[in-house]
Amino acid sequence: MNAPSVSPQTPVQVAIASNVLDGTAPDALNTETMQATHALDALDAARSALLDWQQGAHSRLTEVQAALAAAQSALDVTRAELVQVKRERDQWRDECTHHSDAVSQLTAKVVGQQNQIEAQNNQIQAQQGHIESQHGELQDKQAEIEAHKAQIEQHKAEIEQHKAQLAHQSDHNRRMHQELLELYRDLRATDLPSLILRVGMNLTGAENSMFVNAAGDQTLAAVGLDDLPETSKQALYEYTRKAAQSEEPVVCNDEQSLPDGPKLINLAAMPVAVQGNLRGVIIVANKRSGPFTDQDTEVLLSIGKHAGMAMENHRLHQALNEAYSSTIAVLADAIEAKDPYTRGHCENVASIAVKVAERLGLQAEEIDQVRYAALLHDIGKIGIPDGILLKPSRLLPEEFQVIQRHSSIGSDLVSRVNSLVPIAPTIKHHHERFDGTGYPDGLSGDAILLASRIVGVVDAFDAMTTPRPYREPVAKEEALAELRRCAGAQFDPTVVEAVAAIVNEAPGL
Ligand SMILES: [Fe+2]
After folding, report:
1. Whole-structure pTM value
2. Ligand 1 centroid vs 370 CA: distance in angstroms?
């Protein structure tokens, strides 16, 4: 606000003031001057007042300005504070907005997750329902599986039982097969019926057995009957007659119906037939492990069939052997008829050669071949002219060459008889020497058949120890000494020692 001016600096004021001062102003003018003076005075007063007011106003203005400045300052502070507050508010608002957005996002997320959870929960519930349904089905399946398992276990047990039965049957069949093989293998057995009974007892577990002929009046073999009372034996005969009459197996497991229990608790009688012809009856008794079963009956039936065939084979074998022996005996007689000076020589050689073969561990069949070869070793002499064979004086070299042919002639002769073919090589080489200087082939050592080496040594020993027209017999000790002297050259040392051992053990040879 601007204050009024009170300074006399204006032109009017200057003029008035000038006129007054110089006393030239008219009255009017004086009046007016007076008035003007008064006015000026008033004006001065006013101006003074104005100045005062102006000063006051100025002071007040200053105060106001100061107040305004202070207010302005305060206002600025307030404004600054407001700005700060506003900024903070804006910041807070932004933060709130941010937080709100975050909260909204989180809320949205939570809602989304809740929705997912609900959806998953629904799925889980659905799956749970499905699982419960499947669980029910599984329980049903499990029950079926358990039922199947029980059936499988039952089948398994049945299979194991069958396997055990089969194993038992297989073992039984194997044993029976082996026993029957022994039966056939041992056709040379002199007591075949006893062998058959042992087979039957082994396979059935019976303690006693008997083999009677078809008529029931002859006991062919008996095993373990010595301890049975006579009444028990009579009961066994009775049942063999029943089996013979019916030609069927007869089994009795009733101890009460048998005499002498517990000496006799059970029995089984089996007819033995060959080509439909009854040959006898086998009876086994006292199976302590239990009653005779159908399996035992089958075993005994099988044994009956095989036993019949074995007996028939045995009979045929014996007949063949007899024919074989007869043939050899005839041929041996022919040798002795041709050369009466060697009478008994072949039998002696065969007897000692068999003992040597046994001592050296040869098999039964090989021993037989040694026996037959020894009997016929000089059969070739049949083909030697009497003038040379029976010449009482010393042989000329060419005559000795003829004599040497007898081993090959003998081998050729026996080769024409099928049953004698196996002994032909033994005959051919019975004059080979251990050092290879013998005849006909000059074989040496182990190349010479052992049977030939045996016959050669024993032939020489018997020739030395039996008389000849042209010399006296040599003592056995001297003959053994000669054999030992020639051991390794003419004779096999092992065979020589075997002959010496046999002669020393049996001085009567
Ligand atoms: Fe000879």
Report:
1. 0.51
2. 14
